[in-house]
Specification:
Layout lengths: L2 H31 L17 H8 L4 H31 L3 H11 L6 H20 L11 H26 L3 H9 L4 H12 L1 H16 L3 H6 L11 H10 L4 H27 L6
Helix pairs in contact: 2-12, 3-4, 3-6, 3-9, 3-11, 5-6, 6-9, 9-12, 11-12
Length: about 280
C-alpha cells in the first residue's frame, strides 16, 4: 500500500476506536441482554429466550408511547422540512450581508444542546407566554405537550436542514429559471416544475434524517416533561429508558430497544430508497 493510503487509515483509527468501544461493543452486549431477565443491577440473570419479545407484543403500556412517537414523527418531519425549506428559499433570494447574517441567525439555535433548549423553552412557556399572552404552560397540558415540544425541536434543529436545502438550491442552474421565465412561467410554476424536482436529493437526506430523528425523540422530551403529563408525551425511547433504569427491567427494555432499532433501520432505508428513485439528475 502507498504511504498516502496508509495515512488515510491512520486518520480513521481514532473515530473507529471510539465507534467500537462506545457503540459497537455495547450494542453487541445488548443483544445478549435482550434474551435475559436481567434487572440491570444484579450480577445473576437467566436466559429466557424470546419471552421478552412475546411480552412486548402483548404490552398494552407500549401503545401510548407508539402513538406519541408517531405523532412526534409526523409533526416534526412536516414542520422541520417546511420551515427549513422556507428559510433556505428566503436566504437564497437574498444576497450580500443580510443573507449571511440571516443564515447565521437561523443556524445559531443548532449550537444549543437538547437539554439547554428544553430548559430555555420551559422558561418561555412557563413565564414569558403567561406574562405576555396569558397562556398557561403548554407543557402541563396533555393535549398541547407534544406540539410544544415539537416547537422546541424545530427551533433547535431546523438550521441543519436549512443548510442542506440551501446547498441544493445553489446547485440548480439559473439557466432553467431563465428559460422558464421566457416561456411565461410564474413563481409557483417555476417552484413546482424546477425547484422541487431538482431538490429531490436534498429531500432524500432531509426527510430521512428528520423522520428517524423524531422517531427516536428522547433528550428534549425527557428534560421538558419526563414523558408527562400523565404519559402524554412519553415516547418509545423514554419508555425504553424507564424500563432500563426506573423499572429495573433491563432485559425487557433492551428487547424493546432492539426491535425499535430494527424498525428504525427499515424505515430509514425505505424512505431513502423511495426518494432516490425520484431524484432527477442534472
Amino acid at each position: 500500500m502507498k504511504k498516502r493510503d496508509i495515512s488515510k487509515y491512520i486518520f480513521l483509527l481514532p473515530g473507529m476506536a471510539f465507534f467500537t468501544f462506545a457503540l459497537l461493543i455495547p450494542f453487541l452486549m445488548g443483544i445478549h441482554v435482550a434474551f435475559t431477565d436481567w434487572n440491570g443491577i444484579a450480577k445473576d440473570y437467566h436466559f429466557v429466550g424470546c419471552q421478552n419479545f412475546k411480552t412486548m407484543l402483548l404490552d398494552q403500556r407500549l401503545y401510548g408511547p407508539i402513538r406519541n412517537t408517531l405523532i412526534f414523527a409526523l409533526l416534526g418531519t412536516i414542520g422541520n422540512n417546511v420551515l427549513s425549506l422556507s428559510l433556505a428559499l428566503l436566504i437564497h433570494t437574498e444576497t450580500g450581508k443580510f443573507g449571511k447574517l440571516a443564515r447565521l441567525i437561523y443556524f445559531v439555535p443548532v449550537c444549543f444542546s437538547a437539554i439547554l433548549t428544553a430548559f430555555l423553552w420551559k422558561f418561555m412557556f412557563g413565564e414569558v407566554f403567561l406574562t405576555l399572552f396569558g397562556i398557561k404552560n403548554l407543557l402541563g397540558n396533555k393535549y398541547m405537550a407534544i406540539p410544544a415540544i415539537v416547537v422546541m425541536g424545530l427551533w433547535n434543529g431546523a438550521g441543519v436542514n436549512m443548510l442542506i436545502y440551501l446547498s441544493g438550491l445553489k446547485n440548480i442552474p439559473q439557466d432553467y429559471y431563465e428559460a422558464a421565465m421566457m416561456d411565461g412561467a410564474n413563481a409557483v410554476q417555476k417552484f413546482r416544475g424546477i425547484t422541487l424536482p431538482l431538490l429531490m436529493p436534498s429531500f432524500t437526506v432531509c426527510i430521512t434524517l428528520t423522520v428517524t430523528t423524531w422517531l427516536k425523540e428522547f433528550a428534549t422530551t425527557l428534560a421538558a416533561t419526563d414523558g408527562g403529563p400523565a404519559g402524554a408525551s412519553r415516547t418509545i425511547s423514554i419508555y425504553i429508558y424507564q424500563n432500563l433504569y426506573s423499572y429495573h427491567k433491563a432485559g425487557y427494555g433492551q428487547a424493546v430497544s432492539l426491535a425499535f432499532l430494527i424498525l428504525l433501520v427499515a424505515i430509514g432505508l425505505g424512505i431513502s430508497a423511495f426518494f432516490r428513485k425520484r431524484e432527477v439528475e442534472l
